[in-house]
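Appendix C reproduces, verbatim, an entry submitted by the partner laboratory led by Prof. M.T., so that reviewers can inspect both the input and the predicted structure.
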Amino acid sequence: MKNQSGSKTLTTWTPEDHTFWQNEGRAIANRNLWISIPALLLSFVIWQVWSVTVPNLKAAGFSFDKSQLFWLVGLAGLSGGTLRIFYSFMVPIFGGRLWTTMVTLSLLIPAIGIGYAVQNPSTSYTVFAILALLAGLGGGNFASSMSNISFFFPRSQKGNALALNAGFGNLGVSVVQFVVPIVITMGIFGALGGDPVTTVAANGQTKSLWLQNAAFIWIPFIVICALAAWFGMNDIASAKSTFSDQAVIFKRKHNWLMCWLYMGTFGSFIGYAAGFPLLTKTLFPSVNALQYVFLGPLIGALSRSATGWLSDKVGGARVTFWVFIVMILGVLGIIYFISAESFAGFFACFMVLFAATGVGNASTFQMIPNIMRQEMVRLMPGATPEVRVRQAEKESAAITGFTSAIAAYGFFLIPAFYANFDPRDALKVFLGFYVTCVFVTWFFYTRKGGLLHDVERYGRFLTAAKS
């Protein structure tokens, strides 16, 4: 049975059916994916806009101290992570099309608010704190976006699709760190955009600064993406479920294990991205860090989007295991080069670390649907294969969103460690955490007897799912 022509709700959705996928499903899935990607990119832009706006507040006439500035960045991370918890469950309740449209439009609130607030040096810190919390609306969107896309693709392509959605979405971190320093030096919107402030450099040179452009520049793109979501995306009828139906994931052991592993990959990526500019400036004050900081998130995002196929081919758990080994080596290198006072070595090791987090972001998400398909065989032995697959898809989507919510707290935790400890001591803590991630991946998933050992090593997934 084909879907009704022109309908935004897909009443028939069976991507594992090869004929359906080739004739109808693939085109619809790809359209939803390529609308989702720019919307998610803009979400990361708004979430991370404080990371490049805050360093310019003093030049714009604001008198906030370092602690207050740190909290403006941290509050966006805290609210983004918290909102992800709720957003994780929204797509099956509201539908992917409506929810994506609403959350994309919600980005206008912090974008407009920040744009106006930074123009007035008398704006209170309370207002800025509220706007920082509202920037977390962008952080929350990741959970629902990944949950939505996970429903559209067959298992064999799910890892790559999620990697593309998340990887290009993560590019928003690099985009905002690259674009904002440029646009705040130009009167792009003329009189409509407001007046600039005049800043004086240490050498006495003056220049005009349109700090409001850091937020205003994204407004037209947000509107375009919201319209594209409403008119171009679809809802999947079979993906609908209530919160109570999805809440079963809190009883699943593997939900919590994947939260731990995804904190190690995505939590590291987003936390390192947020803290890298300040860490570099603190350790190597003679280096102009702002011209380099966007490269780390860029490499991490591209490695995520470019390596989803690898996990689909050789297995997400096996890739994840080696990712954490590389991350351990990367951290050891960073600690060494900090002591050696070598910026080149420090920077190179961080680029390796960012690249590894990107690969791990893709591989951990690829693991989730495979884990739940295997678990449904054990949990629902009397159910038909179709029922088990449908339940696995729903739980996988909820777990995907929830793990991303927990991992988002890395945005706050890593800069907080930098702020309160010697950077080398903070990195040693992260090193110990990655050692536990290696053990969890090996013990529960890749060793002989682990849940995914046979699936990934011998390709027995379909047999297990249909038995």
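The two ends are 26 Å apart (CA to CA). Additional entries are available on request from the coordinating office.
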